[in-house]
Write a structure and sequence with these properties.
By secondary structure, the protein is α/β, with parallel strands linked by helices. Helices cover 39% and strands 16% of the residues. Strands 3-2-4-1-5 form a five-stranded parallel beta sheet, sandwiched between helices.
């Protein structure tokens, strides 16, 4: 699989930092794009600065694109998953530039979009990634 055939996604839920970096390296990811609205985590190593530092130490460029994040994360516990993801889908319908910005950041790189949830069907990246992939003419592969 070359850089032009796939856009990867990965969640760090249930993973150690070394495991995540190993998966990225095994898949020859050269740029990790963090698509969390706020790149903070209670899990050691997964907040923006330590994650970026660890990725760079592993030879992977780290980029945070806040505009691609889910602005409804604050109310996620008050909504059913389908409602939350529906709100994000509607949000992206009016945020074409955010999708374009992610697509621009993907071009010329082997990229994984990162956020928390292990299963992308339970996550906003499962909505974002196909839109970006469509713009680029590639397919999505979850890691």
């Amino acid at each position: 699989m070359n850089v032009r055939t796939a856009l990867f996604t990965i969640g760090y839920e249930g993973r150690a930092l070394d495991e995540l970096l190993g998966i990225l390296a095994a898949n020859k990811i050269d740029r990790l794009i963090d698509v969390r609205d706020l790149p903070l985590s209670r899990r050691r190593g997964f907040s923006k600065t330590p994650l970026g530092n660890a990725a760079r130490a592993a030879g992977i460029e780290y980029l945070h694109l806040r505009e691609a994040g889910n602005p409804f994360r604050k109310i996620r516990h008050d909504l059913k998953l389908d409602d939350l993801l529906g709100r994000y889908r509607d949000h992206l319908d009016g945020a074409a530039q955010a999708v374009a910005n992610v697509a621009d950041a993907v071009r010329g790189h082997r990229v994984a979009l990162l956020c928390y949830e292990a299963d992308s069907s339970h996550c906003h990246r499962g909505i974002l990634a196909p839109r970006v992939a469509q713009q680029l003419g590639v397919r999505v592969k979850d890691l």
